[in-house]
Here is the input.
Amino acid sequence: MQNTMGAWIARRRYRRDLGRQIELGDYLVKDIGLSLEEALNEIKKPFWRA
Here is the structure.
């Protein structure tokens, strides 16, 4: 149960940070190897979906 919750928290945090990078400039997203479209699709996912 703890592992699952830890994964959910990590995904939520990752997606929140990814959204902030998009707000600052899509060049930051490209710098980590994602296209803007990929990043937008990722942040739309619910935290329980990998």
Observations:
- The two ends are 16 Å apart (CA to CA).
- The mean pLDDT is 94.
- Helices lie at 2-24, 26-31, 36-44.
- The CA atoms of residues 3 and 25 lie 33 Å apart.
